[in-house]
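quick one, 223 residues, struct below
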Amino acid sequence: MPFGRDFMQRWARDERFRQARTCILFAAFAAEAFVNEFLAAFELPESRLKEIDMRPTVWKYIDGTAEAYGERLFWAEDEVMPTLKKLFDLRNLLAHPKPGFGSPGFFEPDDPQFEARFAMSELAEYLVMVGGAADLLVWRAYGYGQVDPLATKLWRARTVVRDFARRRGHLPEPDEPDESSIWNQIGDYLDTQPPLGDHPDASWTRLREAEKRRRSEPEDGPV
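---
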């Protein structure tokens, strides 16, 4: 392999690891922030909230939310929790590195085991499951009419996120054509999906009703 191309591939590998670490850390921050906000939305005593805050984040999702809401929302082996547990295990390794754990040096050979932890498919799954958990927590805490736009998009367009990760899970060839950004693809996909169901308290229902009224009024305004 020519030296210039080898050098650029090694630089791209380092940059991919850097971006992957950022993705993992911020996904973990978001997951913890969503569950903490959910717990604070209910009338638990402040002393109990402080006790819960000392527990691991996965415990907060499984047991803390059940205590606050009065009904279990997550289980240890459901669709979300195994992925969130992997996310926080990896976050802990990044925040508290152990001897022998780290990305290969610039001129060191690839480490398949290390790379597997930061594969695009893994990152996509973290984003999808954090989005799905947040989508559930927000409307259970504040009512059906409230959503977190980013979390809801990631969850509703999870097939797009996973497909994008599968396609982009390799370093592109120099002449490989670009494709539109993941956010453009998510937007295009959601445009083809049926709208969120109507509910009298939902913000999107109120917007639809307002648009209907606007269309039915004369151009000079209401009489």
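The chain has a mean pLDDT of 83.
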